[in-house]
Amino acid sequence: MKKRKLIPRVALASTIFTALLLPQTVMGEGTGDDPRMIEDVKTEKQVKAEKEKLRKVREHITNKREAAESEGKVSALGLFRVISVPSFEQETSYWCGPATVKQVLDYINGTSKSQRYYADELGTTKDGTVFSVVDDVLNDHQDENYYVYTTHDSDEQSKFNDKIEWGIDNGYPSILDLKIDPDYMPKYTRSVAGHIVNTSGYDWDDWEIRITDPFDQGNRGVTLGNVWHPADGIWEANQAHFRQAMIW
């Protein structure tokens, strides 16, 4: 039997009350990130997996830097890389979670099920998807990468970027929880209080991160698909979100 994080029933009443207090953007277009603060409770397996993955990230980044120094070539750092994650536009205004899960699984497995299927697996409602269950669903449907949920403090942008880089280099898109504002992600024209996307590339020369975004804000064709954004903007959007979390 699959073990999943449980969403307490008592949270339902508090969700209704909280929704009345939150800004209107929480329920606005493009959201799909459930605003309930439901913590990620790691299993023993997840704790061990995270420690091992952190070791791999440190080793990977260190080896790249040492190779660059020994060869005297900046290019050896691997400043640019993209992976071909397919884009699936979210089928409802609150299905960014199911669409992103579909994108990641389709890339890793070469096939995927419907957004409706993943919405059911994630327990997505009209309030959106609880981000802390996304790693469980990804791990239930592929065996290439054991995804874990991690948060970062405000002084840990380099660690955030290193995880994204390690994932792209190994063919594992990371999943990000973002609070988007045009001030730091200018391809967006309006704020989005909570949005779930995956990474698909990095360019440290131009200091950008590419995300596979399932949302076409304003039907302009600007935000949808594999789109580059300022690396600092992605970091700020992640830090602005109350979870400050990523799944990698």
From TrEMBL:
Short name of any one Pfam family annotated for the protein: Peptidase_C39_2
Keyword Coiled coil annotated: yes
Superkingdom, natural source: Bacteria
Coiled coil feature spans: 44-71
Occurrences of domain Peptidase C39-like (ranges): 84-214
Keywords (A to Z) from UniProt: Coiled coil, Signal
InterPro entries per UniProt: Peptidase_C39-like
Signal sequence annotation: 1-28
Name the record gives this protein: C39 family peptidase
Annotated source species: Brevibacillus aydinogluensis
